[in-house]
Amino acid sequence: SYVLTQPPSVSVAPGHTASLTCGGDDIGSKSVLWYQQRPGQAPVLVVYDNGRPSRIPERFSGSNSGNTATLTISRVEAGDEADYYCQVWESSSDQYVFGTGTKVTVL
Amino acid sequence: QGQLVQSGAEVKRPGASVKISCRASGYMFTGYYLHWLRQVPGQGFEWMGWVSPNTGATDSAHNFRGRVTLTTDTSTSTASIDLSELKSDDTAVYYCARADITLLRGVFRVSGFGFGIWGQGTVVTVSS
């Protein structure tokens, strides 16, 4: 089965940039979606490929190449503290696969 | 925009079944596939299956085939999941989610590539 690997945690100071990675075999050939989940809440879609839902700030952006996809959060704010999950639709198995999640801590 | 509201928490014995509902509002119910996913406490997400409210067609993940039943009621804009033969490791938060993202990289997929709107989650505890 297809596996997506994320670092367990990332720490970033307010106003700085956070780069969250998601590793998978030839992930650059797939569309990657990113979700933010605050404690006790349902996930929120923040990025799909290099697009964003209209309600999501421009500070959130996505990129994807080779074996790594990246979610970049610019000008980090305290409210960005949450768990972030990457997700793909894996065509060979027709399954929706999620990464292991990264906890973002704002210092 | 739309909203999905799920039924309340459930506590079940091993071997029992659980049925969770997901009521949609604010959009055309038959216009989007609905998916079911779960999250084991402290862990990631597991996709369970989808249902088309328009046709009633369903598909489920290999791990759940034979144990999961997905249905919709268009008269009440409600989707439901029925999970049978519960085990302790079915203890999780269960979510319904709308397949908003259907067009990526010029490819259209009616059942969606990902999920734009989620229900609030339903806690299911399986314990003897």
Overall strand count of chain A: 9
The DSSP helix count of chain B reads: 0
Oligomer category: heterodimer
Strand content of chain B: over 45%
Report the structural category of chain A.
mainly beta
Summarize the model shown.
The complex is a heterodimer of chains A (107) and B (128). Chain A is 0% helix and 48% strand.
List the helices and strands and how they pair.
The complex is a heterodimer of chains A (107) and B (128).
Chain A: E1 9-12, E2 18-23, E3 32-37, E4 44-48, E5 60-65, E6 68-73, E7 82-90, E8 95-98, E9 102-106
Chain B: E1 3-6, E2 10-12, E3 18-25, E4 34-39, E5 45-51, E6 58-60, E7 68-73, E8 78-83, E9 92-98, E10 103-104, E11 107-108, E12 117-118, E13 122-126
Parallel strand pairs in B: 2-13
Antiparallel strand pairs in B: 1-3, 3-8, 4-5, 4-9, 5-6, 7-8, 9-12, 9-13, 10-11
Name the features.
heterodimer, A: 107 residues, mainly beta, 6-stranded mixed sheet, 3-stranded antiparallel sheet, 48% strand, B: 128 residues, 7-stranded mixed sheet, 4-stranded antiparallel sheet, globular
Description:
The complex is a heterodimer of chains A (107) and B (128). Chain A has strands at 9-12, 18-23, 32-37, 44-48, 60-65, 68-73, 82-90, 95-98, 102-106. Chain A has 107 residues and is mostly beta strands. In chain A, the strands form two sheets. In chain A, strands 1, 3, 4, 7, 8 and 9 form a six-stranded mixed β-sheet that branches. A three-stranded antiparallel β-sheet of chain A has the order 2-6-5, with no helix packed on it. Chain A starts with 8 loop residues before the first strand and ends with a strand. The model of chain A has no long low-confidence stretch (mean pLDDT 95). With 128 residues, chain B is mainly β. In chain B, the strands form three sheets. In chain B, strands 2, 4, 5, 6, 9, 12 and 13 form a seven-stranded mixed β-sheet that branches. A four-stranded antiparallel β-sheet of chain B has the order 1-3-8-7, with no helix packed on it. A two-stranded antiparallel ribbon of chain B has the order 10-11. Classes of the chains: A mainly beta (107), B mainly beta (128). At the A-B interface, strand 4, strand 7 and strand 8 of A face strand 5 of B.
